[in-house]
Amino acid sequence: MNHERSSALFQQARTSIPGGVNSPVRAFKSVGADPLFIKRAAGCTIYDEDGNSFIDYVGSWGPMIVGHCHPRVVEAVKRAMDNGASFGAPTELEITLADMVIAAVPSIEMVRMVSSGTEATMSAIRLARGHTGRDKILKFSGCYHGHADALLVKAGSGAATFGVPDSPGVPADFARHTLTAEYNSLESVGQLVAENRDNIACIIVEPVAGNMGTVPPREGFLEGLREICSNEGIVLIFDEVMSGFRVAYGGAQELYGVTPDMTTLGKIIGGGLPVGAFGGSREIMEKLSPSGGVYQAGTLSGNPLAMTAGIETLTLLKEPGFYDKLEEKSRQVAEGIANAARAAGYPLYSTRVGSMFCAFFTRGEVHDWPSAAACDTKAFARYFLAMLNEGIYLAPSQFETAFVSAAHDDAAIEKTIAAAAKCFKMIA
Ligand code: KE4
């Protein structure tokens, strides 16, 4: 497969953009190859600058759940553009999307739009601190909530991929307010809460962890967090930037029946345009400026193009049977890959929640960061490159999630499974 133009563009990009990319995990560094430069996409397929095509399981890291260039989304954004890209003034579109989010997500009575998941989690934490008057926050190792200083502590995703879960540049004085527990371990949470009684403003958790690979919550884990937070006056924040509108229309909180105090969103609600959001009870949210004193702002927050793409995308998700069909596609492809590994005698631990799935290269099970970190990342890299050569585009890191879209048809799924069967035999 020819990658000449992508490689030439990567060399060029590295002279003007740090590492040649605008987000580290795109650099293919952990899989030992040059990244592909993508020219365009349609449905479940992406096309690179060398004319190669790939079945896409990254989906822009989650937003493209209805597939790339869905005609309804493209047309609506084109029409919105004719009216103007951004006004820096309120628009009716923001009310429309806010009301759709409020109607969908059990914990949300009011919501504030921002322009990224990082802004959403950073702002939600500030609001939780303002609401409680407490300074400390508790997160989980291997979970990633964007790159705000307070959250780059034992973080997942690219931070884990590049071995900088505790990033340089974050003052120790900031990081000391961030407590870290083990995902799926209520015991580790209880111990930290007891040691920091009345000092923890919030617990922030990915209700389905997607940034150490896909790690589902164990039975009772989310319920336990809910009980601890209710008893201790701690704000429970579900970071649903990835799982929101992904694992169910109402997110993981609908799927598991556990309602947090606040929720952060992103990705899907912008349909591929820059967006984030954070929401919660009226009591908490009205403490946000200008109705309250907790300051938060953004030039492009709620801009008409992102709102339009989000409204159209969520409208498509509400169509009858959308999630049932997506569930069946996702089951087929995830089980097909797992069966291919088993047939080749290759040790693999597979996980899936809805249309998020992961193949862990390990003989053990994976329920938290330590077990995820034990995976054979070199074997993963061989698998990634072999699948890429077969025209399958996976996330370039063991510590990421694969996403299925409504546009992944039977032919794409069959091709993926056949490629996996060939690749596991090759790398075994
Ligand atoms: P953004 O600032 O990248 O929009 O969102 C940060 C974020 C917050 N919370 C969760 C649960 C997330 O998964 C993310 C971002 N996800 C990564 C993919 N693992 C984004 C990809 C990237 O960093 O380029």
Characterise the protein shown here.
With 428 residues, the protein is α/β, with parallel strands linked by helices. It has two domains: 4-69 and 322-427, Aspartate Aminotransferase, domain 1, CATH 3.90.1150; 71-317, Type I PLP-dependent aspartate aminotransferase-like (Major domain) (Aspartate Aminotransferase, domain 2, 3-Layer(aba) Sandwich). Helices cover 39% and strands 14% of the residues. The strands form three sheets. A seven-stranded mixed beta sheet has the order 4-10-9-8-7-5-6, sandwiched between helices. A four-stranded mixed beta sheet has the order 1-2-3-13. Helix 3 (92-104) packs parallel to helix 11 and helix 7 packs parallel to helix 8. The protein is globular and about 55 Å long. Bound molecules: ligand KE4. Ligand KE4 binds next to helix 4 and helix 5.
Quick one: how many beta strands? 14
**Biggest sheet strand line-up:** 4-10-9-8-7-5-6
Strand proportion, as a percent range, falls in 5-15%
Oligomeric state of the chains? single chain
- Mind telling me the C-alpha Rg? 21 Å
Bound small-molecule species: ligand KE4
CATH top level assignment of the largest domain = Alpha Beta
The largest sheet, given as strand count, sense and whether it forms a barrel, is:
7 strands, mixed
Structural class: alpha/beta
Count of helical segments?
15
User: Which consecutive residue ranges, at least 5 long each, have pLDDT under 50?
Assistant: none
Residues in helices, as a percent range: 25-40%
CATH topology of the largest domain: Aspartate Aminotransferase, domain 2
